[in-house]
User: What shape does this take?
Amino acid sequence: NAGVTQTPKFRVLKTGQSMTLLCAQDMNHEYMYWYRQDPGMGLRLIHYSVGEGTTAKGEVPDGYNVSRLKKQNFLLGLESAAPSQTSVYFCASSSQTRTGELFFGEGSRLTVL
Amino acid sequence: AQSVTQLDSQVPVFEEAPVELRCNYSSSVSVYLFWYVQYPNQGLQLLLKYLSGSTLVESINGFEAEFNKSQTSFHLRKPSVHISDTAEYFCAVSDAGATNKLIFGTGTLLAVQP
Assistant: This one.
């Protein structure tokens, strides 16, 4: 029973490089989210999706792109990484029938040098 | 726009003592309120939630929170903490819309000392 799985768990990038974080959930959830967590700032929503083929912007979408080609996967892309994107990224999913109950992955720690 | 304020970034407390973690929210519409807990090097887990009905909600491990509309608060309390309660606690608000997306506070680190 994997739940929400994020890959990779750790990554170091140089400024200007690109990368993709993969989130996979096996609970058949309709909704998926990407948050970033920074010290003293809590979690901030980057992008989210309410279904396959749909995405929407959250609080801090600049510098990120997302795609949800399959219901179980939600990809977060950084086209040109910047040091300000150094953070811990969390993916979460939820069922539309369970109000506010998000299931989180274990996080992906990204460092941009 | 909605927002959540957790004024205490860290709360140190001795084992078996009571604790209160404060949360205030701001919203112009009806809201749902939540507390999530994050243990070291893990993702967040739902601790308890208020959607409607009784303003006092409880978790399975002894925490409780009370929704106070007049004070726009949703403080988390536990009468006697354990070492294992050491974690970061996040208050969150949702606008009762159809997306389930949450706005989180900045978190409070509960540090239980023996």
